Amino acid sequence: MAIKVENINFAYIKDNILKDISFCSDNNNIIAILGQNGSGKSTLLKCINGILKYQAGQIFIDKQNLKDINNNTKAKLISYVPQEITFGDFSVFDAILMGRKPYIKFNATSKDLQLTSDIIFKFHIENKSLNNVNELSGGEKQKVAIARCLLQEANVVLFDEPTSNLDLKNQLEVINIIKEIAKDNKIVIVTMHDLNLALRFANKFIFLKDGMIYKMGDQSIINKDLIKNVYDVEVEIVNINNQLVILPK
Amino acid sequence: MENQKNKLINEYHKNKKNKIIVFFILLILIIVFSLINLNVGYSNLSFIDVIKAIFNNGENSNVVIVYNIRLPRVLTAIIAGFGLAISGTIMQGVLKNPMASPSTLGTSNGAVLGANIAIILLGVGSISTSQGISVALKNPYITTILAFAFSMISIFLILLFAYKKRFSTETIVLAGVTLGMLFQALTIVIQYFADDSKLSSAIYWTFGDLGNATYQEILIMFIIILLSCFIFYIFSWHYNILASGDDIASSLGIKVTRTKIISLILSSLICATCVSFLGIIGFVGLLAPHIAKKIVGQDHRYSIIISGLIGSIILLFADFIAKIVIRGLVLPIGAITSIFGVPVLLWLLFKKKREM
Question: Which of A123, A142, A146, B158 is the most exposed place for a label (fewest CB within 10 A)?
Fold first, then answer.
């Protein structure tokens, strides 16, 4: 399993949002896409997922060009958890079951129901599974959204700011779930604002600036100058128990 | 653990069975209301007379009354009520807007403008109401055709504007409401210059009348609604997922724009057909989806059909009220649906607020 993004360019009418974005990754990786607001992080995720149509470039998953496959097949290869999560008036069970849509023709099969039930128990939300999904807390809704995306059984999983609306406990819980997903032979791509949180779980970092890749690589690329140039903020980087921590000055 | 998982799936199935029970209860209510409506009318027919007439027995005049006057009204109420309700359900689902309906999106206003152009400017059409007021004009079909055409023009204009903004739901709703206002303004201008007889004909047309439809027209409505309903059912998963947003729908493999266009055109087609044959019957398309949502939730695999059945019951009930308030006179059905619909809708909305 591998993803290859080649020279992606995306513009809204005339505003170039993404310029010549290229990177690749194989499985078991968590890639954090970082950068200031408006640097193109969410747009890049939407381009990878095919929600936005990029004007130039190509994206391959295991040598399959995404432009050559239909929406349904693409949904079996890439899944996506957006930043703003809404579900409509459905039970938790139904909201998660929707993740099986790429496999469902008219009616959900017993396999679809079984997979839904399995993941509900895995995420410990069985007691609320027949409740209205809107009755859940923010953290629980995030779990429902992740559960739904996992039912797509896609090997590339995209998260747009998965922890932005969560308290500390739920942030760590979601991070642990994301780590587990990556271990299951998948590629996880996450956009994040919180650098310290990204440092805790990602093993590849892509820094975007003005729609271009400013720098990418493993943790070794992160230093004060990089943060200053990308975020325009002076920071101290300290090592606590083998964990880098970024402290604004 | 496996037992608990299976128990959850069983509970899920049980939940779905309850919705099927609701379906059958509503079906029985439709039959009951239909029989009641067949028994209510200007002529004093007993229940036995009506039943005999349905089976083509009894006095010939009774058979004529039932088959030529009462049965078409009942069938029209069932079919148009069903159609307008599913049309509203789809519009609300696709546009994620609880106020979306054929009347709020300008489709009905388009039909009114078309009818006014036919009746007032072209001096054609034929308006006959249940009260026997009639204006015989040159061509009985032009009013229907123009009402239908303007209704469909309305949705195509909305989609044209929406095309510029990637079919965003906000653009569709705003374009619909704005065009509705424009059509309303043009209608007022046309009516301002009309003479009294044409003006009264045009206004009677807008009242809506279940007695306007012939068997042929009922059949046309039935076929269009049946085919659309079939397509809506195929799309029911799409509508469920669209509630989570266009991005999620797209990432789950749904062609969002295609789904929106097909759904809006079909729901407008249903509305245009019903309105052009019957006149304006407001509120059913707005109210029935809300009641259905309250009973079976938003799951479109069930709510489309349940909303349709509720729409049929609303129109049967409204027609019953319209016929019994003043003996010998049938009140405008559109007014009845609104008078009874407004408090019910407000109650549903306030109840929802309190629950939240």
Answer: A123
For an interface test with A, give the residue of B10, B230, B251, B300 to mutate (most A CBs within 10 A): B251
ipTM: 0.91
* Rounded Cα–Cα distance for residues B321 and B37 (Å): 10
Residues of A (154-213) whose Cβ lies below 8 Å from B: none
What residues of chain B lie within 8 A of the CB of A93, using their CB? 8, 12
Residue A41 phi, psi dihedral angles, 5° rounding: -60, -55
Q: Is there a contact between A8 and A45 (Cβ–Cβ < 8 Å)?
A: no
Distance of alpha carbon B222 from alpha carbon B208, whole angstroms: 18
pLDDT, tens digit, 9 for 90 and up, residues B323-350: 888 877 888 888 888 888 888 888 877 7
Domains and CATH numbers, chain A: 2-248 (3.40.50.300)
- Which sequence spans correspond to the domains of chain B? 22-355
Strand-strand pairing, A2-12 and A15-26: antiparallel
Ranges A139-143, A232-236, B167-171: which has the least confidence: B167-171
Q: What is A113-153 written as a DSSP string?
A: HHHHHHHHHHTT-GGGTTSBGGGS-HHHHHHHHHHHHHTTT
Report the half-sphere exposure of B181 (CA within 13 A, side-chain side).
Answer: 5
The model's pTM: 0.88
Nearest Cα residue in chain A from B15 = A130
φ, ψ (nearest 5 deg) of residue A163: -115, 5
| Superfamily of segment(s) B22-355 | ABC transporter involved in vitamin B12 uptake, BtuC (1.10.3470.10)
Q: State residue B97's pLDDT score.
A: 84
Q: Phi/psi at B116 (nearest 5 deg)?
A: -65, -40
Length of chain A: 249
